[in-house]
Amino acid sequence: MMARGSSAARADPMGCSMKVVVMRRLVVVWVALVVLGWSVSASAQMIEPYQGPETGLLRGDAYYYEGDYYRALTAYKDFLREAPDDRRAERVRLKMAWVYFNVGEHGEAARELDRLAAQAEDVIVGWWARYYYGQVALASDRRPLAERAFEEVITTCEPYVARVGEPTDDPEIRECLELSSAATLGLARLEAVRHDFDAASRRLRAMPGVSPLAGDAAEIADLVEGLEIPRKSPALAGILSIVPGLGHVYLGQYGSAFVAFLWNGAFIYAIVDSVLAGRYGQAVLIGLVESIWYGGTIFGAVGGAHRFNRDAMRVVEDGLRRDLLELYRDEPWPARFPAHPAYLELSIPF
């Protein structure tokens, strides 16, 4: 009896151990199923917002940042075709205008921006479209159009800029302050392109005093205002070139002056020598060649004076435009209205 009881007592712990093992495995399986179900649900929630037209919008931004502008344009058009009534449609059209601008289709970009500026229901988009229209016109050398666009932005935003500092979080006030400041810099750039640097200085001083750019704009205006740009007189350069090479000395082109003096002197010597030797036909022929060379020397000096003045203006223009660009660098238009806040971190399979 004792032997049988001892054997049963020893068998019970083994049975308990098996039950514990089975229970643990069931718990592990149950936990794994719960975790798997949660992962699938979370993945579905993450993917769901990017189905349908949303995918095209994300792809358009991704293509843009890869520099593949034409595919970006196609993606944006697909989005507008699939979701024409989406609340972001006007912002997508703004992006399309920027893509057109990047591929050199300035006319198409200007037409899209002009339509948005006139018809956009989102007033902020309409304001940016008018400002960007001015940028496109300036890049296309349509200066009167650029000036009108920038001035229209400033006039439209003036009432909102006057409200800066009020206890309100109205986004239109913030946007208008930035737009008005940017449009003022656009007008200053326009005057720089015209080489009217005093006018550019006046434009900079018209920057709204509440703008964070006002102080730096005033410093640039101080540098430009009354700036003495070196100039050379084309008429004086031509008169001095009556003595071959002297006009080039006036321009500081000493190598050209030496060559002009040497060759003209050689031709004149050859003419005189031919006349003294009685070779009048040869003297006439050399004289014809010398007249061309001599006239070229005079016109070269006159042209050199014009080039000197043009280059001096361009140096100042480039410096002013560089300072203005460093003062305010606008974001790329797709970055201003991204399809998703984390657009730079997206990895979209194409």
TrEMBL record:
Signal peptide: none annotated. Keywords: TPR repeat. The keyword DNA-binding does not apply. TPR repeats lie at residues 53-86. This is Tetratricopeptide repeat protein.
